[in-house]
């Protein structure tokens, strides 16, 4: 039994077309870059001088040579949080929890990557934050750190970071000290002292209030005494007699009383008896 053999021959031109199409796809995929919102790009020129520090690419679609590489990083405001072990002014170890808001300078993104690398947060920002925190916290006592100096510490750390990073193409926007952790014994002692100070202030307030009330009552009593003295000096026998007559007449007008005059009372005033 004979077998029919069929020779399949692929067209030579078709093979070349497929090869060209594959190369073109690879070329396009390597040559197009989309930079997303809040991001910036820096070109790494493989056959040139490496990172191109003269040009930064903004958001959108870009075409680059396939042998070059586009390094894309976030350039919008970002934050990092960390817990640092630092020493207070008296050598006591304190744990500080804080958050830093920072933003790379878009126009200098190439210089930032060239000098500090794409991982500039670990290489540059974290060491700067630790140095600034140690410098600032080392100026204060544990009591100041725990209570009243939080806002001042935040501002001073921000100023220290700004000085450290002044020529590093990175801007720190804000510093927030979220918590200061002291050893339990120290924290308890500080809380007890603060409580005692509060109780002392409350006691002093009550004393001051009582003193003011006593002074008010004294002034009021002295005023009444002076008034009575003036009144007593002005009441002559004739005035008293006239006041008595007026009072008697008013009483006689009352519908609930009957007027019965039986002679005269002391100082010539009539005597009123009886009522309904």
UniProtKB/TrEMBL annotation:
Origin: domain of life: Bacteria
Transmembrane portions of the chain: 12-29
SMART domains hit by this protein: PHB (SM00244)
GO cellular component: membrane
Residue span, Band domain: 30-194
Principal place of residence: membrane
Signal peptide: none
Alphabetical list of Pfam families matching this protein: Band_7
UniProt-listed Gene3D superfamilies: Band 7 domain
Subcellular location: Membrane
Membrane topology listed for this record: Single-pass membrane protein
Designated name of the protein: Band 7 domain-containing protein
Keywords (A to Z) from UniProt: Membrane, Transmembrane, Transmembrane helix
InterPro entries in the cross-refs: Band_7, Band_7/SPFH_dom_sf, Prohibitin
SUPFAM superfamilies registered for this protein in UniProt: Band 7/SPFH domain
UniProt record, GO biological process: mitochondrion organization
